[in-house]
């Protein structure tokens, strides 16, 4: 009996291979799309950081301090300064999109700073584009604080006769030691790419397998597929996808991560266990979704449409706890939510698999849940066919 069960799983595995070989849509989705998307989307963010973001500058102070500020800002690899003679021209160029903001140094800046008065400079940025405005703010703010502190340090040393240590205590009574961990350069690409590769793995599996199941219904092959029993049918078909996408996961972690220069700090065995569990959860989920459709084309369209919403609500691009309550409940039904919570901590910070036990058992629960509802759904379809 056991041998017969094994043989049925193997025969269903090769049956799926044969079906995919005859279906150009499945071939494209399963054998080309994962690698194409991984390399294409990865290449977009391969530099990970922006360089030479254009920033207009208007200098009405014309002092040694203003020239020092401009020199240091222009030396930053993130910023490229464009000089304007007046504020109106700088504003106009920002509105036209020729620069992402402007830096204005008003008259009397150096004089006020040397006399220990408040000295204001203006940084206006186009916040409709998040990355350029954030990068400009971080770079210019750091330079202004550093140069401002240096000028005041010299003032206390020369005018008040203070030693360097005492003058430094007066200039910076509280010193912030800022140390970004795991993503040391705070780059957007290093943050986005690990989750993006996981999403590509998930969506190509969901689209391909659900489309395959919809094809079984469309071509009236449901009885043929389930000839060896519902459980055997589900996991016989799913075995091909489990092996294929486990191979893709291994490839991404060893090839794409290296090409994209992404950190991989996880224990290999623990990460492998997590990925196999994640893919095993997606297999019955995809088959349940596919069983809801009688048309491969409609199934493909619906699943392709779901990609971006799934990415948005799983807690990667936006904190899970900040979502509306209804969306939080919906997100908890997606395997991506607990998987991403564990996966990102493992690959980026080197956390262990058991350091987020609740998310791990959440993923196991979803595997049981989707296996159950997939079994019930297909059983009901078979009953309806026999009526």
UniProtKB/TrEMBL annotation:
InterPro entries tied to this protein: ABC-2_transporter_component, ABC2_TM
Compartments where located: Cell membrane
Superkingdom assignment: Bacteria
Membrane topology: Multi-pass membrane protein
Record Pfam families: ABC2_membrane_3
Keyword Cell membrane: yes
Domain ABC-2 type transporter transmembrane: start-end pairs: 25-369
Segments crossing the lipid bilayer: 25-46, 188-209, 230-251, 271-290, 297-318, 359-378
Main location: membrane
Keywords in alphabetical order: Cell membrane, Membrane, Transmembrane, Transmembrane helix
Name the record gives this protein: ABC transporter permease
Organism: Flavobacterium ginsengisoli
């Amino acid at each position: 009996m056991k041998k017969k069960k094994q043989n049925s799983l193997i025969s269903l595995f090769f049956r799926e291979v044969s079906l995919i070989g005859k279906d150009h849509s499945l071939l494209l989705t399963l054998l080309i799309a994962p690698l194409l998307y991984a390399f294409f989307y990865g290449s977009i963010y391969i530099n990970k950081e922006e360089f030479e973001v254009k920033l207009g500058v208007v200098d009405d102070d014309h002092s040694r301090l203003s020239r020092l500020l401009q020199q240091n800002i222009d030396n930053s690899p993130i910023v490229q300064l464009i000089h304007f003679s007046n504020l109106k021209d700088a504003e106009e160029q920002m509105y036209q999109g020729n620069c992402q903001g402007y830096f204005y140094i008003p008259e009397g800046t150096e004089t006020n700073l040397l006399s220990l008065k408040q000295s204001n400079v203006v940084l206006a940025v186009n916040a409709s584009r998040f990355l350029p405005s954030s990068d400009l703010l971080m770079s210019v703010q750091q330079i202004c604080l550093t140069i401002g502190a240096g000028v005041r340090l010299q003032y206390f040393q020369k005018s008040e006769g203070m030693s360097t240590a005492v003058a430094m205590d007066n200039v910076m009574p509280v010193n912030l030691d800022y140390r970004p961990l795991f993503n040391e350069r705070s780059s957007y690409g290093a943050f986005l790419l690990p989750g993006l590769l996981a999403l590509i793995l998930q969506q190509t599996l969901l689209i391909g397998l659900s489309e395959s199941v919809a094809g079984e219904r469309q071509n009236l092959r449901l009885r043929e597929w389930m000839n060896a029993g519902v459980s055997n049918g589900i996991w016989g078909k799913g075995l091909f996808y489990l092996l294929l996408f486990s191979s893709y996961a291994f490839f991404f972690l060893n090839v794409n991560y290296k090409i994209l220069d992404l950190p991989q700090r996880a224990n290999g065995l623990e990460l492998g266990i997590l990925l196999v569990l994640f893919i095993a959860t997606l297999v019955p989920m995809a088959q349940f979704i596919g069983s809801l459709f009688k048309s491969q084309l409609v199934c493909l369209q619906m699943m392709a449409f779901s990609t971006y919403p799934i990415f948005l609500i799983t807690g990667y691009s936006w904190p899970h706890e900040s979502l509306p309550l209804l969306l939080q409940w919906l997100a908890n039904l997606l395997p991506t939510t607990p998987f991403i919570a564990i996966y990102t901590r493992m690959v980026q910070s080197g956390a262990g698999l058991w350091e987020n036990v609740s998310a791990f058992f959440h993923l196991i629960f979803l595997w049981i849940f989707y296996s159950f509802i997939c079994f019930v759904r297909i059983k009901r379809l078979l009953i309806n066919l026999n009526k």
